[in-house]
Structures are given as structure tokens and as C-alpha cells.
Amino acid sequence: MSTPIGIFGGTFDPVHYGHLRAALEARELLGLEDFRLLPAGTPPHREGTMASSQDRLNMLKLAVAAYPEFRVDDREVRREGRSFMADTLAEIRAEAGKTPVLLIIGQDAANELDSWHDWKSLFGLAHMVIMRRPGARPAWKGELRERMENGLVQKAGHLRNTPSGSVLPLQITQLAISSTDIRERMRAGLSARFLMPDSVIDYIDQHQLYFAGQVRKG
Ligand code: ATP
Hints:
This protein has helices at residues 17-30, 53-63, 75-78, 85-96, 107-111, 119-125, 142-151, 179-187, 198-207, and strands at 5-10, 34-39, 71-72, 101-106, 127-131, 167-170. The protein is globular. A 6-stranded parallel sheet has the order 3-2-1-4-5-6, sandwiched between helices. With 218 residues, the protein is of the alpha/beta class. The protein has one domain: Rossmann fold, CATH 3.40.50. The structure holds adenosine-5'-triphosphate. Residues 10-13, 18-19, 22, 105-106, 108-109, 131, 133, 175, 177-180 line the site of adenosine-5'-triphosphate. Adenosine-5'-triphosphate binds at residues 10-13, 18-19, 22, 105-106, 108-109, 131, 133, 175, 177-180.
């Protein structure tokens, strides 16, 4: 079986060091050569995004431009209409054959997995890697809890034996940074410097994203 494919999905609205540090640590701990950041196109499971999918993709590309170990998979942005992770993973699975595919998500996202379109199919398409995140503890109930507990493994090596279906909790450095917080700061005219790469801040300034008319302090 060839080396696993890691998929770190998100809205990245905008991308920040919480995402980037988590991605770096996940890639290292899981020993992945093929690691992809995959921005959501039109997210079906939240109240829309503030920046367009093209802007979110552009910011993500800027953030990892100097780091070839991170690929940006733009298939959801290129796809017309609504995007569902189940469809995206089915596409990746078809390309990957029996190679393990790892869907890497934070605990907050994992807690809501049963609200995702066709969520049960995800376990047949990929392994779940669940990263701790400040303020989020495992909080699954019913069938989601059953699926998570049934698939639970404690060693990354187990994810290499089968294409999908296991669940690995991953301890990573806890950075309490969120896109919501960054958008709020920017709306209030406050700086987001050192929460995200300067190249992304410059892009936001140039394109007047998340902007409410105040003069921002750097
Ligand atoms: P928002 O505040 O708009 O909900 P977010 O900061 O949670 O955004 P997303 O793009 O929704 O960012 O997150 C993509 C993925 O990255 C999710 O699986 C999320 O749990 C994870 N993630 C985001 N921020 C962190 C962080 N600081 N530490 C660990 N994981 C994170």
C-alpha cells in the first residue's frame, strides 16, 4: 500500500497560524508525504463565508507559498455549486485506489460531523484524525459516538494498514486562534498581526476583506 494521503479541509476564512501549525504537526506526526490543504467551496454546513472562495483559496496559497510540503487542493473551489466533503472524498478515494486517505479535522468540527451531508459514508472513504483544539472536548452522542469509539486507534501506524475507517486522536500544540476571532478583530479595526502570515494580512488589506470602514492598525 502506498503512503497515505492527508486531507486538511476547512473554510480558511481566513487561514491563520492555528491552521498552519496544526497542519505542520499533523503532517510530521503522521509521517505524510502527500499532505493537502483543501479549502471548502461553498460550505453547506455553515452560514456562508465572509470572503469569496477564490479569495480564501488565494490567501491559503499565499500562506504556504514557501512550503512545498503543503499542497493546496482547489477542487472544491473549481467545482460549481455546493460542496460536500463526502463527494470530495469519494473523488479522492477513486483516484487513490486502496491508498489510505486521512481526513484531518479539529475536535470542534469532529463534534459536528453528524450534521455533515452523508456523514456515515465518510468512514468508508477515509480515516479520521482528530486534533485537539482549545475549548473543544469530545462531545459526540448516539451513532456518531458509536462510530468514533468503534474505530478508535492510538497509533498513527494503524492508519497504514487499511484504506479507511479508523479514528486517531492527535495531540498538537494548543493555539487558541480562530478565523471568527480574526474577522471580529478586523471588523473592529484591530490588528491581526502575528495571528497569521503577513502575506495574508497584506492580501486582506489590498482587497478590503472583513472590513467595516475603520482604519486598521497594522
Ligand atoms: P471559524 O472560526 O470561522 O469557524 P476556524 O478558525 O475554526 O474558523 P476552519 O477553516 O473552520 O477555521 O477550520 C478548518 C479546520 O482546522 C477545522 O477542522 C478546525 O477544527 C481546524 N482548526 C482551526 N483552527 C484550529 C486551531 N487553532 N487549532 C487546531 N485546529 C484548528
